[in-house]
Amino acid sequence: MLQDLLAFARVTSGAGALVAVDMNTVLAQVVQDLHAQTQQTGAAISVGGLPRVRGDASQLRQVFQNLIGNALKFRDPQRPSIIRVEAVLDGANVRFSVRNNGIGIEPEFFGRIFTIFQRLHGREEYEGNGIGLSITRKIAGRHGGEVWLDSTPGAGSTFLTLPAGEVSADSALV
What we know:
There is one protein chain. The chain is an alpha+beta fold. The protein has one domain: 2-Layer Sandwich (Heat Shock Protein 90), CATH 3.30.565.10. It contains five helices and seven strands, in the order H-E-H-H-E-E-H-E-E-H-E-E. It has helices at about 1-15, 25-35, 35-40, 55-75, 130-140; strands at about 20, 45, 50-55, 80-90, 95-100, 145-150, 155-160. The strands form two sheets. It has a five-stranded mixed beta sheet. It starts with a helix and ends in a 13-residue tail after the last strand.
């Protein structure tokens, strides 16, 4: 837990400069990082064409690693996991979505999952300390964005991030 608290504190204290970041490169790294877990679970991850955004590449990588890692962890064992990452322009911002067909979350727990060390399931059911989404929210806030949730119990969840900043002119979104 001490390591988790240090990771949470480093979001601001160990933060890098906000620069142009190619999100296709970031997501390729995340997919590679999670390759073993993806193979083990039989999940399919697809990534649409993503833009360049202004951000801290290391922190944005952590955001998507947390969101996709959770989608792999909280999967429905009765069906293959499908995870889709996409982005759309939203004014001067980019709205990213990480959609999955996992176990979903009851609406009354939407706010709780972003609170540090708050878990919806016991450790015997799912590993972890309940800090990943707290870190994700803190990183999104540092980038001038938000993280929120749309979910249907038993049908999956969509986590959305909205990093604010300049999008490069050569960004192509699908």
